[in-house]
Amino acid sequence: MMKSVRVVVVGAGVIGFSTAVCISEALPFCAVTLMADKFSPDTTSDGAAGILFAAQFPDIPLQRQRRWFKDSFDHLLAIAQSQCAPEAGVMLSSGWQIFKEIPAVETPFWSEFVIGFRPMTDVELKRFPDHKFGQAFTTLKCECSTYLPWLEKRFRKAGGQVEQRKVNSLQELSNSFDIIVNCSGLGSKILVGDTQVYPVRGQVLKVEAPWVQHFIRDGDGKTYIYPGIRSVTIGGTRQEGDWRLQVDGGDTKGILERCSRLEPSLNKAKILSEWVGLRPSRKNPRVEREVVQLQGRSVPVVHNYGHGGWGVTLAWGTALDTLGLVKQTLHEMAPQAKL
To answer: On the CB side of 133, how many CA atoms lie within 13 Å of its CA?
Structure first.
């Protein structure tokens, strides 16, 4: 079959690769190229703990947010329960989210999609004397340093092309492609001039503590312990508007102190690595399409960025939405084509 429509996906993080896989597998007549400056292990996604739960965005219909979460959870759960789980870096993870004060919403919208969600009992809460309320559940953890190369292989198998290149403007792409899909995260600040996207700096440590088998997350999002396949990720920081990519010794000290209060055995853990990433934050993620005038041509651009710290959680769901927007665009370009 002729690949007749040229599509470029800009960005090689979890959003870019998820989107590229969805498009190339669903639309075999599209020639899909993924283009990015940085690839795994050098993306923001690579350092993410990749645990699945979500925050609620203020201006996106809840129904859409529920679908994003459910689609991502179902996709990763199928992988976790398949023989691909270890090579894809996806696992089930059980634990607790704990709160110093009773939260306004005790049962978040995503609670029905994770496994076995329930309030914690007083006996369980006893080990966290500073916390009044908690939620126990089983969710998924997706380790991007394994998952991204796995997705890349899947993308190439579907006929996708990969090109390492820094894209400085959409203009550069307008002659070679029919549709541009922008998954450039924080890069959208410059690439499409979006002033609403901003960094939230996150620093984490990976430690060797194989005896820690349950995740613990403080509801404020600043302190967390996430056991993974080969190490435990502990964190963190949420520093808005902070662009520093170097490791901060004061942050490391704070992370170790706060996490050891929740899990004293971490005092004995060996530090394997330290990492900093900038979450591509926005009041609401931007998953929408527009037509942009580039070098005298009308070029459809589909955006999928601004997921903040929830990229791994929402990647597959927003990728499927983006696929839908690409299909709509194709329909308008060639109404007679049978999609």
So the answer is: 13
